[in-house]
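Hey all, quick one. A colleague (J.T.) asked me to put the coenzyme A job into the tracker so the inputs and the structure tokens live in one place instead of scattered across chat threads. No bug as far as I know, just bookkeeping. Sequence used:
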Amino acid sequence: MRILLLAHSYNSLTQRLHGELAARGHEVSIEFDIADSVAEEAVALFRPDLIVAPYLRRAIPESIWAKHTCLIVHPGIVGDRGPSALDWAIQQGEAEWGVTVLQAEAEMDAGPIWASATFPMRRGKKSSLYRNEVTDAACRAALEAVERFAAGGFRPTPLAEAKGRGQLRPLMKQADRTIDWQADDTATVLRKLDAADGFPGVADQLFGEPCHLFDAWPEGRLTGQPGEIVARRETALLRATADGAVWIGHAKRKDGIKLPATLAFAAEAAAVPEAPLDGLFAADHATWQDIRYEEAGAVGFLHFEFYNGAMGTRQCERLRDAFAWARTRPTRAIVLMGGADFWSNGIHLNLIENAESPADESWANINAIDDLAEAILRCDSHLTVAALQGNAGAGGCFLARAADLVWARHGAILNPHYKNMGNLYGSEFWTYLLPPRVGEEGARAIMQHRLPMTAQEAVARGFYDACLAGDPAAFRVDVARRAAELAASANFAERLAAKGAARARDEAAKPLAAYRAEELVHMKRNFYGFDPSYHVARWHFVKKSLHSWTPRHLAKHRDLGWRAPA
Ligand code: COA
């Protein structure tokens, strides 16, 4: 079928659905929901059999739904309606939640139901639940609805007959989110911060200044006077609740951008006592720790839970130190686990935007991430694995490829290209790592097309090595089992020797330093050159500027020469 995805933006759910539908042979094109007339034009050009709206912030115009079947993906259980579905579910402690696919009609979210799926809730940030459970359930339900539509003869269930326990709920306002630091216990504070994570955050104050808070993590030992900022560690501030304390990872000041909390309030945070960890990297589950090392037999697991997968200069340096330290352990394999939601999205665009000289900070950051990639590439003591539980984008995809093996979770979405960020050339040794896997032509196509890839597709193209279980817990078990087998394999010594020999051959043919220098010539031009595209694109990205048109690489129907078959 020809399926038009109508979406507020090309977010991770839309990317995943795009990949899943295309893999099933559908012809998919995308249009951003900018104005009724623009959507109408897209429908006229593409003449879709079906319209699917994975992520919309307003109703589809009658001119479209009256003539075409439009399936809306709503992140709520059957009967749930309103714009803050997931926020209410988290804040009210629902044990089970779901996604409903319903047909657009005059009343928002009140059309007949084509499919639904549910999932157990867990403690987690809204953004994390959205990228994992909601996205999985949305894909299951949307694909089922598409199949039902394609088969014909399916009668969707009118809302009144559906017997869901959901209800119409209003937009959640800041007044509903307010934290009472004197009275709210840790669990309540976490629920409020989790329900607002990603966007819009909880309006509050730090050091007497108004700001929005994000990225909360529970603390198991330290506490203080309720409301007081008790301690700092790396990027986070610890604030006492009525019965404990929570770490606040990120804050956004009035008219500012989202930044690590200790940077958003740099001057004030400097006076707060530091709470260093007992062991530098050894896992301590009772507190917040962005880089965490665990060991099982001959395998070391390095977790790096960087918010949004963004890796600033210091984070890259600390991770490189942690990797060097992991190499001193009596193990045989090191698994780079990344974070639960993202493995890495490359250099930290918000920190760069905030720097006095964004060009200098871009330069420092790309060199720091290249140093990290080089440390992984040059590791001759261990076999290395990148295990992608979550999504990866831009330089993060190639940083993962620096490991000997890359295993991605089914459902992870990858964006192994840079051009969307103002025609950035990219580094992280992509010119060394990509072509041998996918061929020169394949590498050019990936970089030019700028499209996301599902984990299955990345393996099919030869870019990554394996696509493992979709359930995150099952994925981690599978990774641990495979890594243990790798470390215990009878031919481990031969494998390590072969890896060393291959690296030496490659180095003789063209040194890593040459690849890096060539890439950095282009990057220097992107950062310091005459063309400001990268700085402009980054500004729009961190400021979250609204789209005024759909990029041509997504809106297939707007390609010159594209014609819908009669
Ligand atoms: N630096 C800082 N923040 C980043 C980031 C980066 N490199 N990559 C993603 N983020 C943030 C986004 O701003 C967003 O922030 P929010 O919590 O305030 O909403 C969050 O991570 C999620 O990103 P989003 O774009 O909503 O996710 P997505 O799944 O729709 O798209 C990407 C994923 C990777 C395609 C997209 O985030 C992207 O293009 N990132 C930039 C990659 C890049 O160019 N890196 C620099 C070159 S190495």
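Adding what we noticed when we looked at it: The chain has three domains: 2-168, 185-269, 291-528. DSSP finds 20 helices and 22 strands in the chain.
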